[in-house]
Amino acid sequence: MPIIELKDVSKLYGFGDATTLALDEVSLSIDEGEFVAIMGPSGCGKSTLMNVIGLLDRPTHGQFSLNGKRVSRLRPNQAAKIRLNTVGFIFQSFNLLPKLTALENVALPLVYKNLSVTKRLKMASNMLERVGMQPREYYLPSQLSGGQIQSVAIARALVNNPKLIIADEPTGNLDSAGSLLVMELLSEIHKMGNTILFVTHNPELTRYATRVVYMHDGMIVQDEQTAIGQVAKTARHIMQRPQTTEENDLAGVSALMKALPAKDGKAPVTKKSRRRSKPAAKKKAARS
Q1: The domain at 2-240 falls in which architecture?
Q2: Span 131-142, pLDDT tens digits
Q3: pLDDT at 240
């Protein structure tokens, strides 16, 4: 049974001539226990799709079922309750409160469950132990590295024991070591049975996924099954595609201008030809 099922879901922002179509009749089904990477260029609708699936936003059109329940038209308080008990979020910018310790940050989602302070802190400490951060549970975010901060954010996302983890560019602000730490943590969480959706621009991270969904202009243009440990086939082509830089563009324009003939049919004057013309000009001046 799919944990996520979208049928012809569209999302529009704005009105009249200013209307933006963020999602264009997207249909997607994700089974429990999948590890799905969402890829595509900036502005293609990846984050909007995550917001709809995570019940942070409502679709304008179409049907959406989460964990077998139709959730397309829920009231905000109903959506918040399901979101609290079903979905865990991991953000690119971490979103930890700077004046709270790692332990207090992880315990925050439990406030809404009417648990005692002692119970909340114990559950938070256990979750920090699970991600290898219990020795630093009394550290402030400013005292942690980027990878450690994201590990705390992962613990916070897991503390409610959600069935679905949504990670929007979870390694976007991390170096390679921090990225590896976070993806290994997500891999371990996936092995425990959680369903994970993560947005990424990095084809290398598709090694952790069982499936890769590619988006463009608000639509899903390809849906590819992949083996864990291997870069997805389409993502590999993206890696091998030559990257055009501004410097390369300028060099190409320069070379093109040198190759094009002048309007009178003569070869364009280059720096070399200018240097050669100087002595001739001096001779002419001497004769006069």
Answers
A1: 3-Layer(aba) Sandwich (3.40)
A2: 999 999 999 999
A3: 64
